[in-house]
Amino acid sequence: MRYISTRGNTEPMAFQDAVLTGLAPDGGLLIPERLPDLGPELKQLRGKSFQETALAVLSHFIDDIPRDDLAELIERSYASFDAPDITPLEHLGEFSVLELFHGPTLAFKDIALQLLGNLFEYILKDRGQVLNILGATSGDTGSAAIAGVRGKDNIAIFVMYPKGRTSPLQEMQMVTVPDENVHCLAVEGSFDDCQAIMKQTFSDLDFKAEYHLGAVNSVNWARVLAQIVYYVYAALQLDQNGRKKVNFSVPTGNFGDIFAGYLALKMGVPIDKLVLATNQNDILSVFFNTGVYQRGNVHYTVSPSMDIQVASNFERFLYYRLDGNSEKLRAFMQEFAEHGAARIDQDGKPIDDNIIATSIDEATTVQTITDVYEQHQYLLDPHTAVGVAAAKHFGLTTPLVCLATAHPAKFPETVDKAVGAPLAHHHRLDALRDLPKRSTEIAADIGEIQAFLRAQAIQ
Ligand SMILES: *Cc1c(COP(=O)(O)O)cnc(C)c1O
What we know:
The chain is α/β, with parallel strands linked by helices and about 450 residues long. The chain has a domain of about 220 residues: Rossmann fold (3-Layer(aba) Sandwich). The chain contains 19 helices and 16 strands. The strands form 4 sheets. A 6-stranded mixed sheet has the order 4-5-15-10-11-14. Strand 1 and strand 2 form a beta hairpin. The longest helix is centred in the N-terminal third of the chain and has 19 residues. The protein is globular. Bound molecules: pyridoxal-5'-phosphate (PLP).
């Protein structure tokens, strides 16, 4: 399988190159040149373990890693999860919750980033290369990236975060990691400062090449690929041997998670509706309801991992929606870049037959946590609650899977308040309190940060 750019101006490349490249050189996103049909093998896949399902799905997309090696990479990636079936389904009467938070940082991003870290290590070793990852986080995503590459050969990671502006828990999840290839930088500035330094450093192409800088951003194709697996795995547990199609509700920010579901659907997995659930940052729900894609201001909500202005994976959906017409896609993206808005003509029809979208306000999110706890004694995290509320809004019925993207203990303030008791705990987070911390305080100054990189980067 080869990978092409949504913008149509990049030579097709193999999987390993797609993983190392991240963003396509023409500014587009990488997608497989065709989508495999899983239809004929669904029968065989039913009843398989998560890891076996992963191997079957990934094999269609990866032909430059021997199958045995791939199986071993998958085994190792999910050995760090604390549930035997990796993504267990919890049945709550009228709906099921797919728990995607059993990885090392208790968030669904672990599913992709644990695999990505192992893929990086494997590919770099094969090629005799090194990689120094530079990232900026406002708090939540840094720890999953760190957990993905800690202790890996030939890789170092540098994560900048605004000092004193992440939650204490988020900071602890990053700075208590003891591995020497992990560097946490507490920047004396804002998240915007961190992002600006990151952007500037990456645009210094000589520096970038000399120090083998890379990123683990949300548009890496391997991340989307890893996420397809749990849609297949969950759908085949609930589709009653192919007699029913399964609905999924997906708390959405950058469109990576729900896009994986969209691909699973296109590949013949028995999926009916995909509910795109946003918080007040509703650029995507507005688009799917009106055809207008318009940049907004960031609203800070109780579901911070979905507080976005633009959705970085949206372009991949757009490519399929425009029937693979890269010229039309480039025009859309250019219009958006110039005016902060672009539209698709709907002719009165929905943007997509399967994706239905709505945004959920803060009060409804919190009330949903309260209600589900009262009815089922089950704690939802605020992101998951957005998805549950959206599914309820559309009155969807079983089989319905709401993706649980984080463990409630990651957001104890909101969850405890919603249920009126301090219930949001996880032993792994409690244990962090006693661990030694490692981080470097540094000025929001590109010179100082580049000097740090020069001194610490793997050569
Ligand atoms: C990243 C994240 C999301 C949003 O996923 P996207 O792929 O960006 O749409 C939802 N919930 C949690 C907890 C997350 O960390």
